[in-house]
């Protein structure tokens, strides 16, 4: 082994690079192996520091399983509506005849779900901790764009089996995209090869899923991770002292609070990756979802809903429509020649605005204080956003809930609609009040 | 840069371009031009114009749709007959010209406002004007005489026919939106009876292309 390394080193001179890499990955994270400074905040925050590494692990797993699936999947949606297409049949073939095919597809399916979940945790964790305030704006931007990439991945992947659920979830998304004022139809034609789903759409989606997005993701996520290596992990707030007047950022506390990457950090990463792998294997083996009926453009299935992580957007559209109905607002058909105020356009604009705020956080939110508990307004807004996304998700399920609980749909909408308005506020308000007091007290103490 | 001439007047010196600058400018312009001309290849991303395909003679008789759990679910694809609609309130999801989803309903003609029925029947485009899901009749709301769109709970009233305008400016008659997010009424498809079969009148087929 050593001889082989030396053989390569003599020819390629890699040892300086390796030494540099070893030096730079020794960034600090709260570690299970260091015993100092285990406050309550430490224990609360500890698992969240590793959400990003779980995302990375799952992304690798998705790459491997996706590669294996690509050997068998046939991206062709030519055929009469309601009849199985080549795409549909090949997925069935993977599920039924290919050795371990069902397991591989199960892992791919559940891996995607868990990846989005871990990514959501990673995003919110980053949001609360304001890492862009200490020189990580580029990393933040790359991360936000990667979040969009992950959603594009799941959107394109969901359509590939060409079954009813995927087909209609995509149809709705496409029609929403088309309602973007002025540009909608053009975007749909470029991205999907037409304004409705067709065999051409599947070909493009397949290309995005297995060819375009992997390259873009490798570059962007690679840069995101490279920046972590270059800049070090954004340390837990306990290591940061508040900025003194005149200083632009807080300074690092000295002392061995947190261990180096190898071995201190790599161990929790490996442990969590193994646990994640276990969960994905279990779910993939026992809870894999078969493709539904073959796609039929003349028949919308009864309970049609997108994947759980798009439900909030689906709920948002429904909710705006409900709100209009409650206040008896009939949007004008055209404003300056564009359909600007209809529920779907307002919904899409709100969702776009939310993403834009996320991307632009480094510009919007300036200052030095990064500690969650010292920033009542921002923390409360974050809590409100979590509340809003959850309640909108609930609202998206109104039809299903109403038939399950046998509550008339009107009452159900009224109930869920008011929950969307009130609950996020009711949850976020105490956060603001309590943290505001806490911050004021702490500042008094420091003074 | 200007330089003072002895008599006090200012004179622009001739700007000298040396060979290096010249080559740099030409090469960068060349690269920029190449990149821009390659960008025009992106035109190929637009869908091909002939993708739709022209159809020849099209039968205008409605055929039953693929909905399950309905009185017509044993005969999808067969022609719709007038005699099948033997009582008021009976309706079916059908296909017109093999590609346009529609809903045919036997209505109580005395309650119908804004339009007249043909032999007691009236037909609407089945594609929801909101996000293009397929509307249903008596499937999701079995006790209400409404066209119901499953995707965002849009509800259309087939007894209340109103004038509306498509995004492209075409005026048309359709079933009024009484709940939910659809922005426009569900357009009527004029029908005629051909030897006891129910057929759509292909007067303005382009009207029903609102879903692309």
Write the layout of secondary structure elements.
The complex is a heterodimer of chains A (447) and B (212).
Chain A: H1 2-12, H2 15-24, H3 40-45, H4 51-70, H5 86-96, H6 101-129, H7 137-159, H8 164-178, H9 184-192, H10 199-231, H11 261-286, H12 311-326, H13 343-359, H14 361-364, H15 376-396, H16 398-404, H17 409-446
Chain B: E1 3-4, E2 10-11, H1 19-39, E3 63-64, E4 91-96, E5 100-106, E6 121-125, E7 135-137, E8 147-149, E9 154-165, E10 171-179, E11 186-187, E12 191-194, E13 197-200
Antiparallel strand pairs in B: 1-2, 3-4, 4-5, 5-6, 7-8, 8-9, 9-10, 10-11, 12-13
Quick structural overview:
The complex is a heterodimer of chains A (447) and B (212). Chain A is built from 17 helices and no strands.
Largest interface: A-B, 41 and 30 residues
State the fourth-level CATH superfamily of the domain at 63-203 in chain B: Rieske [2Fe-2S] iron-sulphur domain
Q: Which homologous superfamily in CATH is the superfamily of the largest domain in chain A?
A: Cytochrome Bc1 Complex, Chain C
Any idea what the shape of chain B is? elongated
Features:
heterodimer; A: about 450 residues; mainly alpha; Cytochrome Bc1 Complex, Chain C; 2 domains; 17 helices; about 65% helix; globular; B: about 210 residues; mainly beta; Rieske Iron-sulfur Protein; 5-stranded antiparallel β-sheet; 4-stranded antiparallel β-sheet; 13 strands; about 30% strand; elongated
